[in-house]
Design a protein that fits this description.
Keywords: Signal. The protein has about 425 residues and is mainly alpha-helical. It is built from 18 helices and four strands. A hairpin with a 2-residue loop joins strand 3 and strand 4. The protein is globular, with a radius of gyration of 22 Å. The two termini are about 30 Å apart.
């Protein structure tokens, strides 16, 4: 059994190695040649459609009209305009890269190793790039939730990942209210400028932020994880820091914040969005600050003037929103200006502790069964586009691992048999 497992692991590793070599050779300055196929794969999956419909239902409950309309536009408009890319020509790209470099928010050494250089990593290709409405290179639903070998790395993985995170966020917010509220508790709904509920109740957790932050945090995966013709993904550049300061993170995170800033979305929302990859508590605030600064450069927005950061003699800090500076200076006392919504969003993005190992295990399990359905993992393009990606889009990696844990390989095979009977592959 151990020898068989080792042999299978070697086979899968070799196939993934071939994918990595091909992905490195892909021209990442052009929209992915496999984006259209990914659109079709995701559109055929009831699981993807359910996730998308859940996100839409939740987005419609956002009370702030500006945030609601922007979120619905992101989810449902195939022609969604990437405003942070309007007017960003080659000269502008060079100037913005120079600003990132000067601020220590990008690693110049990556220019030689990243496919297409730093410009391709920070400015992934969009459609109609030099117009007043640069557009997404693929449908929101066609994007993966992460890198090819990581969590939700298949067409439709993005809405499935976001739906799970949003469900987690809603549960966390509900738990905070039930655990910590009193007679002054809020009703769990958001607010807009005409209905500032938080001013009427000192216990307020903004439901608008709870809903919208998980949706906006990952949307830029439609840019950084485009699809190659062989069914693999573009490589993602990490930036927002350098090896010296340790703040670099997946580029989708910075790009998503930049779009929110460009659209002048509210500071509390944008900071919550930026907190997905690190809770901005004591000792970690500098990371979120760095990502907000990097996003401000790309959005060509001054984050201090726009209210996303404050600056003093010690550097940049998160601003004292709402009543955080009313009667006491938390930053002056060595703490951070923290709202509950920041932590709730950070915690809601924590499913990777299960979904990343599930991705690796599921890859091994379906590779073991693939020959029985006429597929060879070593035939990378056919395997990815006709078996691996459709299987994961319809079933999900997490479901496969849960089935295996409780029913063994026979349970996984039964699921594949049922999928083939319904949809074929």
């Amino acid at each position: 059994m151990n020898l068989a497992r080792a042999a299978l692991s070697t086979l899968v590793a070799a196939a993934l190695g071939a994918v990595a070599l091909q992905a490195h050779a892909v021209d990442q300055t052009l929209p992915g040649a496999g984006n259209a196929q990914a659109d079709l794969t995701a559109a055929a999956s009831p699981r993807v459609r359910e996730a998308h419909d859940f996100l839409l239902r939740q987005a419609r409950q956002i009370k702030s009209r500006a945030l609601r309309e922007a979120t619905l536009d992101l989810l449902g408009n195939r022609g969604f305009c990437v405003r942070s890319r309007v007017g960003v020509d080659d000269a502008t790209k060079a100037a913005l890269l120079a600003q990132l470099t000067a601020a220590g928010l990008i690693n110049p050494a990556d220019d030689a190793s990243f496919p297409g250089g730093l410009s391709a990593g920070v400015f992934p290709p969009v459609l109609a790039a030099q117009t007043t409405c640069p557009r997404l290179p693929m449908a929101f639903d066609a994007a993966p939730g992460s890198a090819f070998t990581s969590h939700h790395g298949y067409p439709g993985g993005l809405p499935i990942h976001e739906a799970n995170n949003l469900r987690a966020g809603l549960g966390l917010a509900d738990g905070y209210r039930k655990s910590y509220r009193g007679a002054d508790a809020d009703d769990g709904h958001g607010h807009d400028d005409e209905d500032p509920r938080w001013m009427r109740s000192p216990f307020f957790i903004d439901q608008d932020i709870v809903i919208a932050a998980p949706i906006w945090h990952d949307w830029a995966k439609t840019l950084v994880f485009q699809w190659a013709a062989d069914g693999s993904e573009f490589k993602e550049l990490s930036f927002g820091g350098t090896p010296a300061n340790g703040t670099a993170t997946g580029g989708h995170h910075i790009l998503s914040i930049a779009e929110s800033m460009k659209r002048a979305l509210p500071p509390a929302f944008v900071i919550a969005q930026a907190s997905a990859h690190s809770n901005p508590t004591l000792g970690n605030e500098f990371k979120v600050v760095a990502w907000l600064r990097a996003a401000g450069i790309l959005a060509q927005v001054d984050p201090v003037a726009a209210g996303y950061l404050v600056q003093d003699s010690q550097g940049f800090h998160l601003p004292p929103l709402r009543k955080l500076a009313d009667g006491f200076d938390l930053v002056g006392a060595g703490q951070t200006n923290l709202l509950a919504e920041y932590t709730i969003h950070n915690l809601s993005d924590g499913d990777f502790t299960f979904s990343i190992p599930a991705a690796g295990d599921a890859a091994l399990l379906i590779a073991k069964l693939a020959p029985g359905y006429g597929f060879d993992p070593a035939n990378v393009a056919v395997y990815n586009t006709q078996f691996r990606n459709p299987v994961f889009a319809h079933i999900s990696q997490e479901r496969i691992l849960v089935l295996y844990g409780n029913g063994g390989l026979a349970a996984v095979q039964a699921e594949l048999d049922a999928l083939r009977a319904r949809h074929g592959f």
